[in-house]
Specification:
The protein has 229 residues and is an all-alpha fold. The protein is 78% helix and 0% strand. The protein contains nine helices and no strands.
Length: 229
C-alpha cells in the first residue's frame, strides 16, 4: 500500500491500546507489592501470586511481540521521517523491558516453589515496571497518533488477533476481565460488537467475576486500586 492511504479506508481505533496499557501498568505495580507481602517460605501464596505474574508476563510478551511483527514494519514502511525518528527508540525500549522480563521469568519458578528469594524477584519486577512505564508513556504520546494516521483498522486488528491466537483459550475471559476493570463501557461495547453472542456474554459476565476472584487471592481484595487512584 502506498504511504497515502485512501480516505475511505477505516483507520486504526487505538482505544484498545490505552486499555491494555492501563492494565499492564496496574498489574505490574500491584504485583511488585504482592511479592513483598508474601512471607518467606509461604509456598501456597507464592504459588498464587506467581501464577498471576506468569499470566501477566505472558500478556506483555505477546503484546510486544505483536508490535514487533505487525506495527513497527507498517509504520516504517509508510511514515517516512515521522516514524523513522521514533520506531527505533520503541524497539530499543522493548529490548530493555525484555531483559527485565527475562530476569523476572528466570527467578519466578524458584520463588513459586520455595517462597524464598522474593527480594530478587521484587527488584526485577521494579526494573521491569520502570522500563514499562517509560515506554508506554512515549508510545501513547508518539506512536498511537501515528498508528491512527498510517495503519488501517484491519491491520490494527491483527495485533489483537496475534494475541488471541497465541493465548490459551481458557485464560481469555480472565484476561478480558482484567482489561475491562478500568475500561470505558462504550469501548467494551465496541470491542465486543463483532463477537458471537455466546462469547459476548462470557466476556461481559464471567470476565469481571474471574478477575475479582483472582484479585482477591493475589491482592487480598476483589477491587484493587485503579491506576488513577
Amino acid at each position: 500500500m502506498n504511504r497515502a492511504i485512501n480516505e475511505f479506508v477505516a483507520m486504526a481505533d487505538v482505544r484498545d491500546m490505552y486499555m491494555a496499557h492501563t492494565m499492564l501498568r496496574r498489574e505490574f505495580r500491584l504485583l511488585t507489592q504482592a511479592v513483598r507481602n508474601v512471607a518467606p517460605g509461604n509456598i501456597k501464596q507464592a504459588s498464587v501470586v506467581g501464577a498471576h505474574i506468569h499470566l501477566v508476563c505472558g500478556i506483555l510478551h505477546l503484546h510486544h511481540e505483536g508490535e514487533d511483527l505487525v506495527l513497527w514494519p507498517l509504520l516504517l514502511e509508510r511514515g517516512g521521517q515521522e516514524t523513522a525518528a521514533i520506531v527505533p527508540t520503541m524497539e530499543e525500549q522493548h529490548l530493555v523491558i525484555h531483559r527485565a522480563y527475562d530476569e523476572v521469568t528466570g527467578l519466578l519458578p524458584g520463588w513459586r516453589a520455595t517462597g524464598r528469594g522474593g527480594e530478587k524477584l521484587t527488584g526485577a519486577l521494579e526494573r521491569l515496571l520502570t522500563g514499562l512505564v517509560k515506554h508506554l508513556a512515549l508510545e501513547e504520546k508518539e506512536i498511537l497518533p501515528l498508528a491512527e494516521k498510517y495503519v488501517t483498522a484491519a491491520e490494527w486488528n491483527q495485533l489483537a488477533e496475534h494475541g488471541f491466537a497465541k493465548s490459551a483459550k481458557s485464560t481469555l475471559p480472565l484476561t478480558f476481565g482484567m482489561a475491562m476493570y478500568e475500561a470505558d463501557s462504550e469501548l467494551i461495547k465496541d470491542l465486543l460488537a463483532q463477537a458471537p453472542p455466546p462469547a459476548r456474554v462470557i466476556m461481559l459476565l464471567l470476565g469481571p467475576r474471574l478477575y475479582a476472584a483472582r484479585a482477591k487471592r493475589v491482592y487480598g481484595t476483589p477491587t484493587p486500586p485503579r491506576i488513577g487512584a
